[in-house]
Design a protein that fits this description.
The chain is an alpha/beta fold. The chain contains 8 helices and 17 strands. The protein has a 9-stranded mixed sheet, with helices on both faces. Helix 7 packs parallel to helix 8. The termini are far apart.
């Protein structure tokens, strides 16, 4: 009988540990709560489970947070997939697979910054980067900041560091400051110094200060980090501009981003196409992708309706001594470059 009780306690302890790893608490299921319900659960040994509504699980296991601890993008499906949105007091990664995606990654980060400054309108944002990434991708345009994102130029501060170790030190010191609305750290590639230990320090500083830290990874690999969320961003084709008479053919509409959930402690992988409304400063999801381009990349020839033949089928200039147009040659001719050479 005693051995049975010990075995039960061992099995229950193993189930509890597995539940913590998977993010499903056995007390939550035993209490009859819905899988999608928000609850605060005390899982300390010897204490009866206690459920408090309006609490969202931030991390698999026992860490919980209130709904206002998330930055909602306004896109219902994306916010639901992220269990409320991006965590405010945390490190979040935004990846660009290639260097040419740097503009899209920066634009998406500025869109999130616009949402952050809506809640903290009187605080600045610090953008930190190395000299390498600023030479490669450039700086945001001040007039465009206000026109597209509603960000005043004086609200966005820049810090250019000559080396990565200096950029990490600045980011760690800035992440602990509550006088900043957010901290953005932009890195190119996959440097060894940006390891799990460095990201743990950034994440811990963000948690203590209650401020978001956005890590922009340009042309970097998806490596293990302490960030709860990793989003992979690239440019999406813009839809046509909407007018009173309908979509304007051949025009360029709002900025669009393809956002994929690369890693999340509370969500499954997914992909979304988001459009940024520069007038309302909000995200909108676009469900249907445009499959064809209404504007021809290369126009057809002006003399005929069909495109020109493939390269090499038509000679640009007739060979020297060739017969006139419309005449038939008297004998087979060979190109000059393969005719036999004269000797002597």
């Amino acid at each position: 009988m005693a051995m049975t009780a010990v075995a039960r306690e061992t099995v229950f302890a193993l189930r509890r540990q597995i539940a913590k790893i998977e993010g499903t608490l056995p007390e939550r299921l035993a209490a009859g709560a819905r899988p999608d319900a928000r609850a605060d659960i005390d899982v300390r040994p010897g204490i009866a489970p206690k459920i408090t509504p309006e609490i969202t699980i931030l991390r698999r296991g026992i860490a919980v947070a209130a709904p206002d601890a998330f930055l909602r993008t306004g896109v219902e499906r994306l916010d639901t997939a992220l269990s409320g949105g991006l965590p405010k007091a945390a490190l979040s990664e935004i990846h660009g697979a290639e260097t040419r995606d740097a503009g899209a990654v920066a634009g998406f980060a500025l869109s999130l910054t616009s949402l952050i400054l809506r809640q903290e309108p009187h605080l600045p944002v610090l953008w930190i980067g190395t000299s390498e990434i600023f030479r490669e991708a450039g700086f945001p345009y001040a007039r465009g900041l206000h026109g597209l994102f509603g960000i005043e130029p004086e609200q966005l501060l820049f810090s250019e560091a000559p080396k990565l170790v200096d950029a990490l030190w600045i980011a760690e010191e800035a992440a602990r400051m509550t006088a900043l609305a957010a901290v953005i750290l932009e890195i190119r590639g996959s440097p060894q110094r940006l390891d799990l230990t460095a990201t743990r320090r950034l994440h811990a500083r963000a948690q203590n200060a209650g401020r978001p830290v956005l890590l922009l990874r340009q042309a970097g690999e998806a490596e293990p980090t302490a960030a709860p969320v990793r989003l992979i961003v690239s440019a999406a084709p813009s839809a046509s501009r909407d007018t009173i008479a309908g979509p304007l053919a051949g025009s360029i509409g709002r900025p669009a981003f393809t956002v994929s959930i690369g890693k999340s402690r509370t969500a499954l992988p997914g992909q979304f196409t988001l459009e940024w409304n520069p007038d309302e400063h909000t995200f909108e999801e676009r469900r249907q992708e445009r499959t064809t381009n209404p504007v021809a990349v290369v126009p057809a020839s002006g003399r005929r309706t069909h495109p020109a033949p493939a390269s090499g089928a038509v000679l640009a200039f007739p060979a020297v001594g060739s017969p006139a147009a419309g005449d038939q040659p008297s004998r087979p001719q060979r190109p000059a470059h393969i005719s036999p050479r004269r000797a002597g």
